[in-house]
Amino acid sequence: xxxxxxLSGIVTIALxxxxxxxSFLSKEMSLPVWLVLLVIFVSAIIYVSRGKSxxxxxxxxxxxGKQFGVQQIEMDxxxxxxxxxxxxxxxxxxxxxxxxxESHFKTxxxxxFQDYAGNTIVVMKALHKxxxxxxxxxxxxx
Length: 142
What we know:
Layout: H1 2-15, H2 17-25, H3 33-51, E1 61-64, E2 67-68, E3 72-74, E4 78-81, E5 84-85, E6 89-92, E7 99-101, E8 104-105, E9 110-113, H4 115-129, H5 134-139
């Protein structure tokens, strides 16, 4: 059935091409520049956002009673329960949430923001430099 429908569509286009060209394709259209730029911008946003999508787990992976030394630890999507961190680097990507329950830090952790979380920090820092936006940025942390 699909093949028959496709074939009939091709035949219709082939037989009616001259009329289609005369009615639509040969006409000159003028579009406002802002509309063309808006379509390009929205298309670019959709294209870029599709490439970075990743599945977000519904539940956090539980890690219990583990000791971490000097190493990078991916925080996204994890629930750390009764864990010990000693000189660890906590990496936040902003893909999913995380949880720390009854965990301990022997030394202050190094915190790194990457990907989505890193982009957010860069924007917040830039907005905070502007006196006009500074109060709004500060209110977002209250």
